[in-house]
Every structure is written in C-alpha cells, then in structure tokens.
Amino acid sequence: MVTSSIGCLQIRLEAATYQEPDAAASALQESLASERRQTRTIFQTIKPDSLGFVSEPGEAVFPHGAKRFREGEAPAEPLVLAARTARVDLVDSYQEARWSGLVNGVPVTTTRSGLSDMALRLAVNLFGAPPLRGEDFAKYRAATDHETIVGLGLIVQVPSGNYLPDKLLNLGSNRFTFRPQLGITHTQGKWGTELTASSWIYSDNNNFFNGSVLAQDPFYTVQGHVDYTFRPGLWLGAGFGYGVGGESTISGVRKDDLRESVAWLLTFAYPFNRQWGVTFSYLGHRTLTDVGGNSDTLAAAISVLW
C-alpha cells in the first residue's frame, strides 16, 4: 500500500567552468552531487541524488535534499511501500549553460538555454529506518545514537530536455537513461558515513549529430561521503567518487573512448527554520583519460519543505 508523501521545492543557482563537456563525465559529477543527497532518501525517507557523475553535459546537479529528516524532522506522512520506507522524486530544471574549448586548435564558445531532461526516482530502504510518522519518528530518531541503513534506488531519465540534433552540445540527451543504485549509510552520534554504487545504462540516441546513431556502454561509479551534524539541519559534508566506462559507438563504429574520472564534493547546509534551509556546495571533477573534461561548480540551493 502506498500512502501520501512529502513535498519539496528547491531553487538552485550554479556557477560552473567546463573545459570540455562529456556525457559520462557529467554522469560522475551528477552522481557525486546527487548521490550524496539521495542516499539518505534511499536510506532514510528522504534524500535526492550527489557527487556529480552526469550523463549529459549541463545535466542538473540536484541540491542536498532532506538530510534534516534523519535528524528528527519527519514528514507528516511517510511514503510506505511493502511495509518499508520509500521515496519518489520527480525533478526537472531550467538551465543556462556556456561551454568553451578548442576546435581544430581554435578557441570557441557556445551557449544553450532551456529545460534539462526530467528524472523520476524511486528509492526504498531494504534494512533499517522503519516507516514511522510524526512523534513516533521523532522518538525513534532521538533514541537512535547509531544506525546502519541499506537502500536500493532507480532513477529513470527521460528525453524531455532541450535538444538540437545538428549540435554536439545539448542540455537534453534525446535518450533514456536508467540508473540503478545500491547504498549503505552508517550514523554514529553526530557523524554520518555513506557508500554508494551506481550504474548508468543508456538507450540509443537514434537522432544524434547530423542523423547518426549513438550507442554507449554502461558507466559505473562508486562514491563515499562523510558528514558532521552540528545541530538539526546544520551540517558539513565531504565526498569523493570514481567512475569508469561509457565507451561509445556512433553508427556502428567503436570510438575507443573509455571514460575514467574522479570527483569530489564539499557541502555546507544551514536551516532557517523547520521548513526553509539553504545549502552551499563546491563540486570538482577531473578526467583521468584523454576523453572527457574537467569542471568546477559552485552552487547554492534554497529548499522549502511542506
């Protein structure tokens, strides 16, 4: 049986530098930036996605979501699936993007604006964090000094974003992406640690650049996070991730373009009250091969929960 869930509105501002855009590199970045936010949802009623391994250049890096629920602020009515705590997210964003790089040795710059691909995510706890409501949830949190939670999630990214088939750089991907996730988190007092493994499984883009067909191997990531909670809603966190895979084939021709990269994330969250909060984060990404690119992103997000 499924009951009602919570609502969350997030407003996010980002400033980023990209040396070269790449789908799998994006996947690593968005994963680190989003897994960090989603793991606690996988594990604890609420947490959107975190390091930033993203599947397409310009894909949204979601803000750290509901860590506050781990700290004792439960939604009025949790989502319950097969007697387990669960969560459903639907995310879309409007983006303004600018890329700079070299084409045949000549510096070029281009910009894009519009909607990114929409993402639907389902996460459910496999172990730990029972589905409780209101005062029962607060009592459980207050009495739990240490806890281990295991969770499973699936994100489906749909090709709804702005896409121009005659351009190589786009905000949308024109293909479906399926992202299964498995994670474990452990809290001990004010400290929290998380470990998450994810994969990006891509459908073909049958209208790639100038009518070609793009196929891409799965991209795999693993990442870890640690955070310290000063008081409910006020916390500092850091994360590191590694990603590999994503070799592509264009119209039947293998490109020999295996991706391998690392990403790291620093985040600070401050609550104004039980409903309003702000999060600041820095996300760095570096490629370990000749394919892909490097990026640095500064972001600020305001979250409203109801």
Tally of DSSP helical segments: 3
Q: How many β-strand runs?
A: 18
**How is the main sheet built?**
12 strands, antiparallel
Q: If you consult CATH, what is the topology?
A: Porin
Q: Which CATH class applies here?
A: Mainly Beta
Elements, N to C (H/E): EHEHEEEEEHEEEEEEEEEEE
Low-confidence stretches: 1-10, 16-21, 35-77
Shape: elongated
- What's the architecture, going by CATH? Beta Barrel
Side-by-side strand order of the widest sheet = 1-18-17-16-13-12-10-9-8-7-4-3
Relative helix content: 10-25%
Domain count: the total is 1
Which value, in Å, is the CA radius of gyration?
Answer: 19 Å
Strand content: over 45%
Name the CATH superfamily classification. Answer: monomeric porin ompg
| Spatial gap, N to C terminus | 22 Å
Description:
This protein has 306 residues and is mainly beta. The protein has one domain: monomeric porin ompg (Porin), CATH 2.40.160. The protein is 12% helix and 52% strand. The protein starts with 7 loop residues before the first strand and ends with a strand. The N terminus is likely disordered.
